[in-house]
Design goal:
Blueprint: E1 2-6, E2 16-20, E3 30-40, H1 42-48, E4 65-73, E5 85-89, E6 98-102, E7 106-108, H2 117-134, E8 143-146, H3 152-163, E9 167-172, H4 175-184, E10 188-191, H5 197-204, E11 209-214, H6 219-226, E12 228-236, H7 248-258, H8 263-268, E13 272-275, H9 278-284, H10 286-301, E14 309-314, H11 318-326, E15 333-337
Parallel strand pairs: 8-9, 8-11, 9-10, 11-12, 12-13, 14-15
Antiparallel strand pairs: 1-2, 3-4, 3-6, 3-15, 4-5, 5-7
Helix pairs in contact: 2-3, 2-10, 6-7, 9-10
């Protein structure tokens, strides 16, 4: 099969090589998928830059989410058959024509589903479901602030929060993204190119929010703590603030930026700081992962989750796809399609 192999930590045009590699073997409990499209995630950018410690040693094939058709299933797997259209979450290996993953991380995809949608369902929507439904509970009327709200993950979090009857504060950069969020029904749209989100909360929301979904990391979490209401929750989903910044010094700066929190500070106000790492959920809590896949499929079928696929690149344009996502130009999911 063909795969885009990460061979060096460099620029989008100098990091990958399209190579012939063996089709991955099937192990017990797994499904092999003939991939029609794979998605890009910000962790891919960090892996390419050499900043993602979970990345396998180079050379390797990265990529977390795929859609396509079942090629083969292990003897101990039920519910899937050859030819079924599916979407799946992979533990790397997604940038290839075939991918294997655990059956708990695969779900059926209706035949009429537009190309690329399954990739968003597999990563962004599953992550959002875990973060917004399994890791804590959103209540009607709560004020929910979502960073990078116009991205794939942000879109899913917005849709879930609105479904739950929350007041959503969507943070994004630029007029186009702001307009996108307004069209989603976001009640408070914050263009961080024009005003800081903390200032907006102080000016329009009495200085407090109930839930923050933060994929920026660093000082953003510390700032979030300063506007968190009694009973509030901060859900951390990544560290985009580190993008492009190599070296131990920048790692130290990022860590210091988070601030130092005593459990007493959270206990006194009945607040929570929750970390979400879907790789670790897949490794150690496959039951929770399966529950998220089931929940996402149900919400998609009901029209509550409706992923937005921003751009679909072809298989020869992986470098352009990486540059596009890295430049923070994307609205919704970025996808690469095999021809």
């Amino acid at each position: 099969m063909l795969a885009h192999v990460l061979v060096r930590n460099s620029t989008p045009s100098n990091s990958f090589e399209l190579q012939e590699v063996p089709v991955p073997d099937l192990s017990p409990g797994q499904v092999r998928i003939k991939v029609t499209a794979f998605g890009l995630n910000y962790a891919d950018i960090m892996a390419r830059q050499g900043l993602y410690r979970e990345c396998p040693p180079l050379p390797c094939v990265i990529g977390y989410d795929v859609e396509g058709h079942v090629d083969e299933v292990a003897d101990d797997v039920n519910g899937f058959k050859k030819g079924d259209r599916v979407f799946g979450l992979t533990r790397f290996g997604g940038y290839a024509q075939f991918a294997v993953t655990q059956a708990q991380a695969v779900s059926h995809l209706p035949d009429e589903t537009p190309d690329g949608t399954g990739c968003a369902l597999a990563t962004q929507c599953v992550t959002a479901y875990h973060a917004a439904i399994l890791s804590q509970t959103l209540l009607p009327g709560e004020k929910v602030l979502i960073h990078a709200a116009a991205g794939g993950l942000g879109t899913a979090l917005v849709q879930i929060a609105l479904w739950k009857g929350c007041t959503v504060i969507g943070v994004a950069g630029g007029m186009e993204k702001a307009e996108y969020l307004k069209n989603l029904g976001v009640q408070h749209v914050v263009d961080h190119h024009r005003i800081s989100w903390t200032d907006y909360v102080h000016q329009h929301l009495h200085g407090r929010v109930d839930v923050i979904f933060d994929n920026v990391g660093g000082s953003s979490v510390k700032k979030g703590k300063s506007i968190l209401a009694f009973g509030g929750r901060i859900v951390t989903l990544g560290a985009a603030a580190l993008s492009g910044k190599k070296g131990k010094l920048n790692l130290i700066r990022l860590g210091l930026g988070f601030g130092f929190f005593s459990p007493i500070a959270f206990l006194g106000k009945s607040q929570s700081l929750i970390g979400v790492n879907m790789l670790k959920i897949a490794d150690y809590r496959p039951d929770m992962l399966a529950e998220s896949f089931k929940g996402v499929s149900n919400l998609y079928a009901k029209g509550i989750l409706n992923p937005h696929v921003g751009v679909v690149f072809n298989e020869t344009e992986l470098d352009k796809a990486h540059a596009f996502l890295e430049g923070r130009k994307s609205i919704g999911k970025v996808v690469v399609k095999w021809q």
